[in-house]
Design goal:
Length: 246
């Protein structure tokens, strides 16, 4: 049985990806931030994954910290025996115009959104090399492609993920490891729920399909990228935005 490790999988897009890959037959390692509330959500996600007849366990780790990732990767490998798919989904926002943004808010977003991707790929790629195969999907954003006012930290982190994805695809392709990214647009998540109705309406005016995407629509593309159907796809960034860029 193949194993998928998803970071930030206690809610939102990460939780949907975990459940979709469980439905596809993967055993699931559900990473969550070390807090009681996140642990409770992760337990629920793991239980939903098990309903598909697969193994699912939760793993607490602050993925912005290399040592936490190191401990988690070892634990996942010991528990499941392999790590066949890695989905780097963990992310936060601390929005503000650059003139008002605090340095610590910039640093925090870079650490969680970008450094975590380095941490996880650095640690998981050797596991995949020994297995002679592996699939990595990094969750970027349209903000990383086009920028977004009030999100210089978030946009920077998500743009960096795109560059990292292409680099790792080139470095590890000969080892039979693929690395791709998805770039979601406006998706229904706890992050978007806090936006004002006025801002939501303005955002949707730029979307060709005139609606928000659903987390399940991101999960379906990730499902393809970690499947054998995508065995010759690597170094790609798939925008999932309902036509935002057209």
């Amino acid at each position: 049985m193949a194993t998928a490790l998803i970071t930030g999988a206690s809610q939102g897009i990460g939780a949907c990806i975990a459940k979709r890959l469980a439905k596809d037959g993967f055993d699931i390692a559900v990473n969550h931030y070390p807090s009681d509330s996140d642990r409770e959500k992760a337990v629920a996600v793991a239980e939903e994954c098990r309903a598909f007849g697969v193994k699912a366990e939760i793993f607490s780790a602050d993925v912005s910290k290399f040592a936490d990732c190191e401990t988690m990767v070892k634990s996942v490998k010991d528990t499941f025996g392999s790590i066949d798919a890695l989905v780097n989904n963990a992310g936060i926002t601390k929005d503000n115009l650059m003139a008002r943004m605090k340095e610590e808010d910039y640093d925090a977003v870079i650490a969680v959104n970008q450094k975590s991707v380095f941490n996880m790929m650095k640690l998981v790629c050797p596991v995949m090399m020994k297995q002679k195969k592996g699939k990595i999907v990094n969750v970027s954003s349209v903000a990383g492609l086009y920028g977004n006012p009030g999100q210089v930290n978030y946009s920077a982190s998500k743009a960096a993920i795109i560059g990292m994805t292409k680099t790792i695809a080139k470095e590890y392709g000969r080892k039979n490891i693929t690395c791709n990214a998805v770039a979601p647009g406006f998706i229904h998540t706890p992050m978007t729920d806090v936006l004002s109705d006025e801002l939501k309406a303005k955002m949707l005016d730029a979307v060709a399909l005139r609606r928000y995407g659903e987390p399940e629509e991101i999960a379906s593309v990730v499902s393809f990228l970690v499947s054998e159907d995508a065995s010759y796809v690597t170094g790609q960034v798939i925008e999932i935005s309902g036509g935002l860029s057209m």
